[in-house]
Amino acid sequence: MHLSNLPRTINLHLDNNKIASLDQLINVKNLKRLELLWIMNNPICDQSNFEAVLKENCLQVKNLNKIVVKVADYNDEIRVSKK
Predict the structure, then answer these.
(1) What is the pTM of this model?
(2) What superkingdom heads the lineage (predicted)?
(3) Looking at residue 55, what DSSP letter applies?
(4) Gap between the Cα atoms of 30 and 22, Å rounded
(5) Which of 3.30.70.20, 3.80.10.10, 1.10.1060.10, 2.30.180.10 is the CATH number of 3-82?
(6) Per-residue pLDDT tens for 27-83?
(7) Residue ranges per domain, the chain?
(8) Do the beta carbons of residue 36 and residue 12 sit within 8 Å?
(9) Residue pair 29/53 in contact by the 8 Å Cβ criterion
């Protein structure tokens, strides 16, 4: 199934799906209602910058791999806190 067929998706669990590159997640940024994205236990998680790149491209995501992502209003600084 193509992600563009899921425009109302709020929670997306892609754990253990052999996702190896950000190119495989390119359509996630088009899910405007997406708030929770879990992609744990995928090869992509071994890349040092994958979380930063994903957060930068998917500003709507508020929870990435069980980590709450908050964008401060006053300076657009990304703040992360474990939940």
Answers:
(1) 0.73
(2) Eukaryota
(3) H
(4) 14
(5) 3.80.10.10
(6) 888 899 999 999 999 999 998 888 888 888 888 888 988 878 765 433 444 444 444
(7) 3-82
(8) yes
(9) no
**C-alpha–C-alpha distance, residues 18 and 28, integer Å:** 16
Beta bridge mates, 68: 63, 81
Contact between 55 and 61 (Cβ < 8 Å): yes
φ, ψ for residue 37, nearest 5 deg:
-135, 120
Do the Cβ atoms of 15 and 38 come closer than 8 Å?
yes
| Residue 59 falls in which region: left (phi positive, over 0), alpha (psi -120 to 50) or beta | alpha
Query: Is residue 22 exposed (0-12), middle (13-18) or buried (19+ Cβ within 10 Å)?
Result: middle
